[in-house]
Design a protein that fits this description.
Layout: H1 3-16, H2 21-35, H3 41-47, H4 52-55, H5 57-106, H6 116-120, H7 125-135, H8 141-149
Helix pairs in contact: 1-2, 5-7
Length: 150
């Protein structure tokens, strides 16, 4: 007997069996699950009535667990990314504040605060750290502005 004919015979036998509709649904779902171990999924979808697998309580439970696992995993990844971004922003803000504080201390009469937007445009933390180290080496506010432009 050909594969598709055998599966059709099993489906027909399940439909004609003297059982209630709930058990019929369970049997058809189980048939789909077990046939899936051996036969092509397209063949099973073609022969089984539409929606049987989706209505099966066992499949529903598996899908529910998969969704919950995916949700938990997604939330965890989102939290990790959020923490990483927050940490990066915090480090960047700290570096900028240190640069501005040191400039204010060294050059109190200059308009140091006008550099804040320029410093905030710098995305690389290493560049901000480099600028922080340079603050103590420059002789004037104008010299630091030149370093900043390069």
């Amino acid at each position: 007997m050909k594969t598709d004919r055998w599966l059709e015979t099993c489906v027909d036998a399940t439909f004609t069996a003297r059982i209630d509709s709930e058990n019929r649904q369970l049997l058809l779902g189980a048939l789909g699950i077990f046939c899936g171990l051996v036969y092509d999924a397209q063949l099973i979808r073609h022969i089984l009535p539409e929606g049987i697998m989706q209505e099966n309580p066992f499949i529903q439970e598996i899908l529910k667990e998969a969704r919950e696992d995916a949700m938990a995993s997604g939330i965890e990844r989102g939290l990790e990314r959020g923490l990483e971004r927050g940490l990066e922003r915090g480090q960047k803000k700290c570096a900028i504040d240190l640069i501005l504080d040191m400039l204010n201390e060294q050059f109190p009469d200059d308009e140091v605060h006008e550099l804040e937007p320029v410093l905030e445009e710098i995305d690389e933390l290493d560049r901000l750290k480099q600028l922080h180290r340079r603050v103590s080496k420059v002789r004037s506010y104008e010299e630091f502005k030149q370093v900043l432009e390069n």
